[in-house]
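G., the chain you wanted modeled:
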Amino acid sequence: MKQPFEQAVRRHGPTVLRVCRAALGPGADADDAWSETFLAALRAWPDLPEQTNVEAWLVRVAQRKTIDILRSRSRHAVPTGDLPDRATPHGNPDVEGWALWHTVAALPERQRLAVAYHYFGGLPHTETAELIGGTADAVRRAAADGLKSLRLTYQTPEGAAR
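Predicted structure as C-alpha cells:
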C-alpha cells in the first residue's frame, strides 16, 4: 500500500531540500524548487506505481526542477550597479536618434504600434492587424498617419526631410 502524500513530504522533504540547496545554494530559488517538486509530485501521486522508490523518484523530480530554475536564471538579466559604456552591435543612437525614438513613443498607441510592427518589425499589415486588433486597412491607415506625424516633425525649413 502506498503511503499518504503528507507522510512522503514529511519523510523525504529534508532530503529534497538538501538536493535543491546543493544545486541552487541556500535561498529563495532552492525553496521554490522544493515547492515545485512537491507540487509536481502531488499531481503525479495518484498514478505512481506501488513499487516506486519514492525518495529516489522525488530526488529525480527535484533535480529536474533545479535544472528548470537554472535555465530560467540564464534567461534573466543580472542586476548590476554600473552599466558598461559600450556600443551595441547595432550602434548607440546619437542625440537625434534618441529624439526620434521619443517622437515615435509620443505617437498615439495604434499609430505607434502600427509603425513599430510594420516598419521596424517588418510585419505585413494583415499580421499587424491580428496583433493590435482591427482590419488590415485600419492598420495601414494608422501606420500612414504615424509616418505623416513623424515626417512633419522631421521636416527642415526648406521642406526636405532631415
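The radius of gyration is 27 Å.

Shout if anything looks off.
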